[in-house]
Specification:
Aspartate Aminotransferase, domain 2, 7 strands
Length: about 300
């Protein structure tokens, strides 16, 4: 069982903070990493060209470990969920008569891109709702499965619904999606870090997460996983660091048509942020030490004692 971790935070001793679904507090280690990064930028002669790549790669590797991804170059640094979702929307093969499925009242960042896209392409947006009362989660999952058909090109969900906590049965949904040849995109912001998420088991085509909730990081940085479907896609922006051989500063004006391998083409410009990246790295290192499965066991213990609904 995980022991009391209050000493790792600078929260006041007069209360207990539980609302990571709104925004997590910063760990002392994360705060320290951010201050160190600020001081480092104060004297930029200490920042070498290799530093634009080394810490971001450490972050990708640490996050890949958290969500069970074998190739760290499938992990990219993004500024927000909306950025990651818009990247998917730009590269989705969608035609008139096709449909995109979302859950009712899911977070706007995982809705607006699909609303715009279906209007552009003449497709349909299927918004799947549930009932109020007993059996809500079970019925909601059943309705999502029933809504998937041969015209479905994408199902975009949270792992956990941001408003009421419904957990979507992604393994079963993924199985149905494969049968029709569609794509599965998950906004994991409300679960990844607090609940185990296994990319090898669930096999999403994209997993998009903001960093400031259960990943325990700062605001305005997130992480995304993109599968093979997106390997030849187009990024939202054409920045220098996502191009092939960008590590060679002396040759940057030898312009490259090719991108960095796998999903790295999708990283936001200036993703080598020397303040937020080390903060995010410190946060995920701590989560990997804690292990999300431990949080789930604690939550079950609380429910048995009726401390949680």
């Amino acid at each position: 069982m995980l022991s009391n971790q209050r000493s790792k935070f600078s929260l006041p001793s007069s209360g207990t903070y539980l609302n990571g679904a709104y925004m997590s507090p910063l760990l002392k280690s994360v705060e320290k990493a951010g201050l160190k990064g600020m001081l480092r930028k104060r004297n930029p002669f200490s920042i070498a060209p290799t530093d634009f790549f080394t810490e971001t790669e450490k972050l990708r590797q640490e996050y890949a470990r958290l969500i069970n991804v074998k190739q760290s170059n499938r992990i990219v640094i993004i500024p927000s969920v909306s950025y990651g979702i818009a990247t998917v929307a730009k590269n989705l093969k969608l035609s008139a008569g096709d449909n995109v499925i979302v859950a009712a009242e899911q977070f706007p960042s995982n809705y607006y891109s699909w609303s715009e896209l279906i209007q552009e392409r003449g497709a349909e947006l299927k918004v799947v709702s549930s009932i109020h009362g007993a059996g809500r989660g079970k019925i909601w999952n059943e309705r999502i499965l029933e809504s998937i058909n041969s015209k479905t090109r994408l199902v975009a969900l949270g792992h956990v619904h941001w408003a009421d906590g419904t957990k979507f049965q992604l393994t079963e949904i993924r199985k149905r999606i494969k049968e029709v040849g569609a794509q599965l995109v998950i906004d994991g912001t409300q679960s990844v870090g607090a609940l185990p998420f296994d990319v090898q088991k669930i096999q999403p085509d994209a997993l998009i997460c903001a960093g400031y909730k259960w990943l325990m990081g700062p605001y305005s940085i997130g992480l995304a996983y993109y599968g093979e479907y997106f390997d030849q896609g187009k990024p939202l922006e054409e920045n220098w660091i996502n191009r092939k051989d960008s590590e060679n500063f002396a040759a940057l004006v030898n312009y490259q048509n090719d991108y960095q391998p796998s999903a790295l083409r999708y990283e936001v410009g200036e993703h080598s942020n020397f303040i937020s990246v080390p903060m995010m790295l410190a946060a995920i290192q701590q989560i990997n030490q804690w292990k999300p499965a431990m949080f789930r066991r604690i939550a079950k213990k609380f429910r048995r004692r009726r401390w949680l609904n």
